[in-house]
Amino acid sequence: MDKKKDARQDQKSEIREYHTPSSGFFFKIKKNLHSKKSNYQNIELIENETFGKILLLDGLVQTTDRDEFCYHEMMAHPACVVHPSPVDILIIGGGDGGILREALKYAIRNVHLVEIDAEVIAVSKQYFPWMKEILKDNRVTLVINDGVNFVKNTSLKFDVVFIDSSEPVGPSAVLHEKLFYELLKKRLQPEGIIVAQVASPFFHSEFIEQKMTFFRELFRFSSLYLGPVPTYPGGCWCYAFLSDLVHPFDIKRDPPPGLRYYNPDIHKAAFALPNDLIF
Amino acid sequence: MDKKKDARQDQKSEIREYHTPSSGFFFKIKKNLHSKKSNYQNIELIENETFGKILLLDGLVQTTDRDEFCYHEMMAHPACVVHPSPVDILIIGGGDGGILREALKYAIRNVHLVEIDAEVIAVSKQYFPWMKEILKDNRVTLVINDGVNFVKNTSLKFDVVFIDSSEPVGPSAVLHEKLFYELLKKRLQPEGIIVAQVASPFFHSEFIEQKMTFFRELFRFSSLYLGPVPTYPGGCWCYAFLSDLVHPFDIKRDPPPGLRYYNPDIHKAAFALPNDLIF
Fold first, then answer.
1. A13-72: per-residue pLDDT in tens?
2. Do B266 and A272 touch (CB under 8 A)?
3. Set of chain B residues whose Cβ sits within 8 Å of the Cβ of A263
4. Taking the model in full, what pTM does it have?
5. Interface-testing mutation among A275, A276, A278, A279, with chain B (most B C-beta atoms within 10 A)
6. CA A251 to CA A246: how far, in whole Å?
7. Which of B4, B26, B30, B65 to mutate to test the interface with A (most CBs of A within 10 A)?
8. Which of A17, A59, A157, A193 is the most buried if burial means most Cβ atoms within 10 Å?
9. What is the DSSP secondary-structure string of B13-49?
10. Could you give the residue numbers annotated as active site of B?
């Protein structure tokens, strides 16, 4: 009995993310804020002394108070500064609202956030301070729907599309497939840009190579770029910039003030790839 | 009794590095290869399924088979490709031999490796395959000595100096101080370059800012640069490039073939700093 109790307390005292079966992160739990299985995934939110609030989906860290700017700035700004006129934006996934917050800093006309899991929105609204503000912005249309369904059935066209999927397991798996990008391309304006989170360059370089193969079949400009995200596996993340007409280096406007990671020097630098990632 | 035994077994089944009191890495232990306190520090070497051999000093990961190239290439190559003629090299610390291995790929005349702890050399020689080869190279002089003592007492001058210290606690603390860099500068040729590992840009930006203050007082070109190291805290590491005459972008030669991380694009990109690190 005592042992069982100890084991339960141990489980509750920290959370682990396994990056491989033999390694990963641990985060001590200061407070358990939320732990519930939705129709799609296990949603956990904890408070940690170092990282503040940490949102995990199926045990994988998505967003933390302390380092979310690294990921969200690198998702949002590269495309927003190079598109000639980004007015209609689509975000698929991204229920924590981080990319939405960044995109709204530009003079856009409207942005659709298509999140499959209403529970992710609800939890983020409760715990991430930016969510309440941005969901009141009248440029925002919140759609609770499967990303593939939305893309199949909408007649809208977009200037910039962000694929803020979780890992290629669970509800996000289909968002990593070629078929989805073929459908998505039909919803892009001619000068449209897609930015997608891809994977860890350190742990998943083969997966990245596979994706690049079909990205190149579909888009004239298919470039990978990198940026650090301390709480993602390997500490560095890989993004894809996809467009038929817009070159990723052709910067047309300043980023908004007040960013913590992204700037024009970082923009260009992010596209420099280590030898191991040059396919 | 049972509980105690369980606790001991738990300790042995994995190793943890705390990056903050509430977060860090865990690595499952496949095999304990070495665990011994030297005169200076606790030296551990474990085998892990993902990372291969992991060397820890006082509980902090120094080198792993899987990702050591990230750190060692970014320490060695930026200075070696921009120096007009790097022939006399000094490495302070670096007992695992990674920087030494990279520096020997250039047409250098000699390299002094000054490591305070003979045990680190012995363990590395036993477990890191490159060590046996490079210590046989007749351009290498191995010195078991305190880095400060060596720098104070030598009459030699160097073209490139690498400070491969461990953290600013324990035997390496003094290697992070201004006084040490003042002494070191006297041992630099006029076109000399110092490259030093500094800290995690994510966890230790205040420490980096302090160091930059005295680097700028001492050297005309004082630049920080960044590169990922998956097994270091935050997954990204900060290095300093210090010189009075050589600009860090003035590349004069190709890097050696066969590198996995470093290339000329990465060289320039590494000096682009996120807003949070521009002091």
1. 999 999 999 999 999 999 999 999 999 999 999 999 999 999 999 999 999 999 999 999
2. yes
3. 272, 274-275, 278
4. 0.94
5. A275
6. 10
7. B26
8. A193
9. HEEEEEEETTEEEEEE-SEEEEEEE-SSSEEEEEEET
10. 164
